[in-house]
Amino acid sequence: MQPQHSIDFDLRKWMMNTLKIEEEGNVKQLIVVHRRHVLNSAMRALDRASFKLEEPFKVEFPGELGSDFGGPKREFLCCLMKELANTILEGEPYNKTFIHSVPMLDKEMFFKAGRMVVWSILHGGPGFPFLNPTIYQLLLEPKDAVCCIDYVIDLDVKNKIHKLQTAEEEELNLLTDWLVEHGVYGIIPPYTQHKRDTMVRQLLKDHVYLRGETPEEFHRKMELAITCGGEFHLA
């Protein structure tokens, strides 16, 4: 992997060259953006055969006068990152997890999301700071990440995890089938604290990290997380 300081240097150099091209008026790519459909406008642009991710571009909002001297482009990229987050993530602001969506996988939405994040960063826009830090860590280093019950969105699952931590053994026996359905099995009574902690950890990993995904869906999300890596904390 390229050292971070080298990546930062290359990115600054790239942005300076892009700014020079823009100042000289040599920008050839024009992106027409409809305010109510920012994400769709971006996807149409990326789908064009002539579109080049690395080339400078200008933004035009239909019905609005004025030339793009950087303001409309920055506004577009900020709005794009927010709308993208609302489309492929769920949960609290800046603490979101990926949604589980096979239709989005079929549409290559996670791959396209990664391209849009790169596009934004290359042209002076924001990164993608919406993803929960633990989810990001899980995607890159699964063995080192620690999940928190607060990251579980499903209230029923959250309640059952709480029960695993405190319930009597007879109550836990009633959860056996449910645990197996959620990928936790092979743990038999007596339920020591160590066994309870193991079950909780496995459930958290399943619901926060895997969530029933297909291998391809997980791979696409991991690619997106790696793409966002260097710019994860950019606002």
From TrEMBL:
Entry keyword Ion transport: no
Superkingdom to which the source organism belongs: Eukaryota
One term of GO molecular function: ubiquitin-protein transferase activity
Keywords from the UniProt entry: Ubl conjugation pathway
Domain HECT: 49-86
Protein name as catalogued: G2/M phase-specific E3 ubiquitin-protein ligase-like
